[in-house]
Structure formats: structure tokens, C-alpha cells
Amino acid sequence: MASRVPAGTAARTGGRQEAGQPARPSARERLLASANELFYSEGVQTVGIDRIIEHAGVAKASLYNTFGNKEGLVRAYLESRRQRSRNRIARALTRYREPRERLLAVFEAQGEMFTDPDYNGCAFVSASAEAGAGSAITDEADEYRAWMRGMFTELAAEAGAADPELLARQLHLLYDGAMLSARMDRDPTAAGTARAAAAVLLNATLPPRPASDGDARKGPGAARTAAV
Amino acid sequence: MASRVPAGTAARTGGRQEAGQPARPSARERLLASANELFYSEGVQTVGIDRIIEHAGVAKASLYNTFGNKEGLVRAYLESRRQRSRNRIARALTRYREPRERLLAVFEAQGEMFTDPDYNGCAFVSASAEAGAGSAITDEADEYRAWMRGMFTELAAEAGAADPELLARQLHLLYDGAMLSARMDRDPTAAGTARAAAAVLLNATLPPRPASDGDARKGPGAARTAAV
DNA sequence: ACCCTTTCAGACAGATCTGTCTATTCTAGC
DNA sequence: GCTAGAATAGACAGATCTGTCTGAAAGGGT
Q1: What is the CATH number of the domain that holds B37?
Q2: Lower CB count within 10 Å: N or C terminus of chain A?
Q3: Residue A115's domain spans which residues?
């Protein structure tokens, strides 16, 4: 993104986006992209409106016409993060069919995330910490976490867990801990550590599936066809 | 530089106050107590200097004489959190002698922490998220996390883990995840969930008895004699 | 051509925050 | 009682931030 187009009013919408023209994104999209970049890397409280509009090359009035106020922009930013996270995990899940492997694939997706040099922890945790008891942010975070937990629960049930809820909560703890450690300790291998611990949990609590050999509880990297 | 403490405060408290009087705490102590309460519950960025001094009943000049600037107060606040956390865990560890039980006791201490109605997540994570790449805060957080990890590593070694470092990292992940979940999901039972997962990990990776062989994992004998 | 929507540019008000400074009050020790 | 130093109360400067408002430019659709 970054679209640092020479501000100017140059050929904005490019007439039409039909031709091969890149079609400069709308003000809304540019604002959201800038919010994603600045809010995520520096924090929603630290980054002011002026920074956003300057980075997006957008007038202040456009921001307030589009999102109402700063909180509206923050909400839209978190919503886009949520969608992005869902897509990343859904994509990782398509790589496996075996339920046990699908559970571990979540941690592989996490590992890919950590390799991004711009990785800076969970956006919902940070935003929630910054905004205190901000209702809007809390709602977004709650929805995101409920989805994550439901996803883990479904996969755990498919894998034949005796108590899918419990296993899901435990895996979610590992997932959260890895997100936190990757940021606080600047350690991208946290996902591999979490995956190894998850594998131990699965082996100990899932019924002994005749699934090939006794899997591998390797450290970072791991996984057969892992990574993109 | 820190320790800009003018001898004044020391003179006041250290001088003589041992009359029967309650001895009102020094300005420094009241400021630190207010910082602990307000910074922790609402965030270091959100809470302004004026709120702090009003709550502490202290003049603004006293704050700046004692801590230099706001960052100095934040640093002192985090240092006191670190000490408190160390004490709580050390206290919990004295309750058990068996290494395996001592490892699990860390999660019990965590559970007690979660029962506090004012619990609001890890102060270091929140402060770090709010202040971005604030160097002082990062240093405090790094020190705290290094201590936690070292503590887990020592206990894991005492318990005879083949790879104490790995086990410590995994347990730390569970611990962090529980801290995060207790705050984000407002679920104090997260410590119990983490403890259960930790017990599974210990059963699966620790040798069955404090004797006998060292199981399938590669272990250059360093297992039980490592560190104290 | 004409209208209409979107966008731009930036001044401005009102609030808030950090940090400094002045002037007064309190307390301990001689 | 008196004095020195610490603490207090609060005004103040300087900066920053959110949100509003005015006014104009620039195309698209009819």
C-alpha cells in the first residue's frame, strides 16, 4: 500500500477503472490503508488524525464524512484486521484435511505472520490496552476472540476430542501466548514453540488415531509442506 | 537519569516519624501508589499528570522533583509491579517442595491474581502497547520477562526436564496466554485452564520418576544437574 | 452545458496535556 | 522564636489533538 502518490489532485479516480489504469483507490480505502499501517505500528492513541490524513493524502473533511469520527476509523481498522486474520487462517486450513493437522496448521499460519518484519503483536490486544474500557474496541475484540475460539472448538470436535471446549481453550492460550511472546520478546519462533506444545497436548488428549506415524514434535519451522 | 531523588524525601521518612502517629506516607510513596492504581486500571497514556497528583494529594512540583518527568514515574511504577510479581510467585513457590508441583504453583499464583476485581492484564504488555517503542518501558518489560523465563527454566531443570529451555518457553506461553485471556475474555478461570494444560505438558515430557532413564528425547545428561 | 457528488486545503475553536515557575505554607532542628 | 528546606497550590506557556467549518476544484452523469 503506502500509496505515497504525490499528493496533488492528479487524476484521482483516473476517469474510470475500466482500462488498465491502476485506478487510484478511493479516499476511504486510502484512509483505511493508512490506518492499518500507522495504527498498527504505533498505536491508535499515539497516532493522531493529522498523521493519518497526511499519510493517506486525504482531506480531513473526507475522513470525517466517511467515518464520522476517529473511533469510527478505529473500528473500521479493527474490522479489517479481523477479516484479514480470518482469511489467513482459512487459507492455512485448506492445506490439510486431517483434523489434527488442521489444528496445527493454525500455528503455522501464525508462524508466517511472525515473519513479517512489521509484525507488532495482536492489534486487538494493543488497541484494547490503549483505549481502556472503550466500548467499540471491546466489541470488536470480543467478536474476534469468539470467532477464534469457535474455530478451535470446531476443529477440536472434528479431531474427536473428548472435551472440545477445553481443548480449544488450551490451544487458544498457546496461540495467544505466542502472539504475545513474538512481540514482547521479539521472537518469531514462538509459533513453533506453541505448535510443539500443541502437538503434545493433542497426542495426550486425542484418541490414538491410526494417522500415519507418530507425528513430529519438532521445534520451529516444522511441518511438512509448511510455509508459502 | 533516575535517582534524581532529592534527599528531602529520605530525610522526611527516614528522619523520625516513629511517634504513635500513622505517619502519612511520603509524597513519593503516595505518587507511586496513585500511579499503580490509575496507570494500571486506565493506562499510562490515558492518565495524565493532573489526575495522578490530584489522586495522590501531592503538588505537581513534588512529582517533577521526585521523578524528573512522567516517564520516570512510569518507570518507577513498572519497577514496583515487577517486584510485586516476583514476591507473589516466590511466596507461592514456598508452598511446595516437589519440583513438578512448584511449576504448577506458578499458575496457582496466577489464579489468585485473577480473582482480584481490579485485575486488568499484564501491566508490561499494556504499557508496552501504549508507549510504542518507548525505550524505558521496553527495558522494564524485557527485564521482567527475562526473570520469568529464567524462573521457569530453573524449575524445569529441577524437575528433570530433558530440555528445560524448551519446556520453560512452553510454560511461559501458557502463562502469557492466560494473562491475556483473563483480561480480554474477562475469564478468571484461564489460570486453571493453563494449569491443566501445563500438567499435561509435564506428564508428557518429564521423566516418570526422579530416577530411571531419560526417555526417548536426546539428553546429553545435562538434564537434572543444570542450573539451580 | 449544467448540476452534483466527492474531494481538497486549511483555518479555527475548544479541550487537554506536559512541564516550568512563582509564591505561600508547613515542619524540623537550633 | 527563627531559619532552611521541603511541600503545596495553581497560574502559565507551549504543544498537540479532535472535530467543525468555509470555500473551492475536479470530474461524472444527464
Answers
A1: 1.10.10.60
A2: C
A3: 82-205
